[in-house]
Design brief:
- InterPro entries: SEC_C_motif.
- By secondary structure, this protein is α+β, with helices and mostly antiparallel strands.
- It is 42% helix and 12% strand.
- Strands 1-2-3-4 form a four-stranded antiparallel β-sheet.
- A hairpin with a 7-residue loop joins β1 and β2.
- The longest helix has 22 residues.
- It starts with a helix and ends in a 12-residue tail after the last helix.
Length: 230
């Protein structure tokens, strides 16, 4: 796949209207981008701080997030700071979470509002307090933690059952007991979460099922493999 640059340019033109400290740059023969100052404001609308950023379409926009770079040298290029060390772009969400968000449809404006600004607020918290709030692990373990949050369980065997349920594309009868073992009706227990996760492709679900099964077998997280290549 390749990025939809026309879509990126149309959305960037709308984005800079709402965020005038950002500039949309188009140079013939080059990848378009947005750069400038991202202002973080408090509830009263007063600026708390600002980050210098650059945002450009990745190779498969809008099926995956645009790439965001902090260009002011304020954040170390270090995965412990949620910056990918190979490209220097920000790690904004786990791969399954990012896939599900994009599958519902994103625009640059919604991406900045609901993903980028919260990400930099977390960075600000790390700067001031020394740790992130509600931080997930990196790589495959972070993917599993995402599913644990979605299914509201820390039991990986239940996560596997529910991923398999999503993979089956078949729902139990509405009055059936939930497969998680809670004794609650499926429709009032895990049905909403399974329906959400079922938006992932079979290939993606197989990938995460393998990670989860390998983790249970080996009691360690297997080496990271990029899901974005699917």
């Amino acid at each position: 796949m390749s990025a939809d640059l026309s879509l990126f340019n149309r959305e960037a033109a709308l984005l800079v209207q709402q965020y005038p400290e950002l500039e949309h740059v188009m140079i013939k023969g080059k990848i378009p981008f947005v750069h400038g100052q991202l202002l973080l404001k408090d509830e009263a609308g007063d600026v708390i701080t600002e980050y210098s950023i650059r945002m450009e379409p990745g190779p498969d926009y809008p099926n995956w997030f645009p790439w965001v770079f902090e260009t002011g040298g304020r954040i170390p290029i270090n995965i412990d700071w949620h910056i990918f060390e190979n490209k220097g772009n920000c790690c904004i969400a786990s791969a399954p979470e990012e896939a599900l968000i994009c599958r519902k449809g994103i625009t640059l404006t919604s991406f900045v509002r609901f993903q980028v600004i919260p990400y930099f607020f977390n960075q600000l918290h790390r700067e001031r307090m020394g740790f992130f709030l509600n931080e997930r692990s990196h790589g495959n373990l972070g993917h599993l933690e995402f599913f644990m949050e979605e299914f509201e369980t820390k039991d990986l065997s239940i996560v596997i059952k529910l991923l398999n349920e999503a993979r089956s594309r078949k729902e139990p009868k509405s009055n059936s007991r939930c497969i998680c073992g809670s004794k609650r009706k499926y429709q009032k227990c895990h049905r909403p979460a399974v329906r959400k996760i079922a938006a992932l492709t079979n290939m993606e679900l197989d990938h995460y099922l393998k990670i989860a099964n390998d983790f249970i077998r080996d009691r360690k997280v297997p080496k990271e493999e990029s899901i974005t290549n699917f």
